[in-house]
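Deviation from plan, reported transparently: magnesium ion complex.
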Amino acid sequence: MTKVYTIASGKGGTGKTMTTVNLGTALALLGKKTIALDADIGMANLGLVLGLEKSKITLHEVLAGKADISQAIYELPTGLKVVPSGISLQGFQNADPDRLQEVMSKLVAGADYILIDAPAGISKDGVIPLAIADEVLLVVNPELSSMADAVKTKVLTEMVGGTVGGIVLNRASAEKTELTSQKIGDIMGVKVLEVIPEDPSVRRAAAFKTPVVVKYPDSQAAQAYKRLAAKISGTKRDEPVATGKSEGFIDRLARSLFKGG
Ligand SMILES: Nc1ncnc2c1ncn2[C@@H]1O[C@H](COP(=O)(O)OP(=O)(O)OP(=O)(O)O)[C@@H](O)[C@H]1O
Ligand SMILES: [Mg+2]
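Because the crystal trials were delayed, the predicted structure below was used instead.
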């Protein structure tokens, strides 16, 4: 059985692409047949961060009806298979997001996991991935604007018949003013599956077009991504996620903002 996860957020720049890349790579390294697909067809960068930006056939050509999905799959040395999107505006204009569901039905054969890197916002090409996934994972930063947009994405997911499976709390630091993972989970009514710390290794690895789980496997972020992969695939006992301690202004504000939500 293939499990399809859409990695979404609402707000841009929360770490969807990094989560797709690192969770996908970690799953592949656990021996799971995993495909990462870039559904951010307007602002694609999954291929870019993995060194696949020169790929001739991408999801753009597939969604334009000019190529078969089998021609747009690229396998990396880790075993992760990647379907990048093109970076040209013309390619984006020719791509029909309505074809995504049909593409997915062809992809699922033989895959254990498919991770869809979703675009930010609530455009049509962003909504379809929310509807076609078995579970949507929300990548949230510990700040109110990120949470507010993620709540919108959660509501939208449910409106289109999808399911939110959990939160990946990314770029967490030990700052006292930050919302704790427990509170974010409580306020949003969604379980926090893992906390990925703010870690300069993530960007350092990106400079080498290599996932942090490969380039700096012992870094804090890499370890967190590997825990998440183990949890999702059931290959390792759950470990407790880090939780902060403070309750301050932001917590109270968040509580009042999301009261009853
Ligand atoms: N845990 C982390 N620690 C430090 N930097 C991070 C972390 N996660 C992501 N980043 C950095 O934040 C930036 C945004 O990450 P990413 O591209 O994954 O976000 P995104 O949600 O896919 O953005 P977009 O909405 O534009 O598609 C990148 O420069 C990335 O290297
Ligand atoms: Mg992205």
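Confidence is low (pLDDT under 50) at residues 237-247. We consider this an acceptable substitute for the interim report.
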